[in-house]
Amino acid sequence: MVAPIDFEKDKVDLAVQFGAGNWPGVETELLFKDLIQPVCSPKLIKSARLSELDDLKKVPLLHSHYRRTDWPDWLMAVKRPDLLANEGISFPSSVLTYQAAVEGVGVAVGQLFLLRNEIQDGTLVPLFNAPFERPMAHYVAWPKQRPLGRKARSFIHWLKGQIAESLAAAS
Questions:
Q1: Distance of alpha carbon 144 from its chain centroid, rounded?
Q2: This protein's superkingdom (predicted)?
Q3: What is the extent of the structural domain holding 19?
Q4: Distance from the CA of 6 to the CA of which of 102, 107, 140, 154 falls in 20 to 30 A?
């Protein structure tokens, strides 16, 4: 998990943060929820014959350093914590984890909203029709003691509009 921004130290007006949205001294607005699901390349689906949960034993599970609980959370949601015995491969970032999935190295748990382009173009395929919404989300955040100005409000409005467009296009 990435540490929350320290508005006193970092001297920024706004930040996009991932978490529960209840940071001390901070106001937040929800941007999008954390909907996760295993994803992999179409090539790996075919070569490893991935069609049921037990097939995950045949391939490496790909883990992101900053999203260490994705696999445990998803496997608990589908009532298969036994599959965590597959230690898999860890990567220092989600970007590298998802790239390894695109390349057919293994199966990653993906944030569906952030991977919508790869899913739409068929580079990555969601597996098992079992998305799981975690209690965390992406938020725009700002310090409570600094009211938002017109420009910051306009930016938040624009950002939320972009996200709404992307969500509408994905469904």
A1: 27
A2: Bacteria
A3: 15-33+135-170
A4: 154
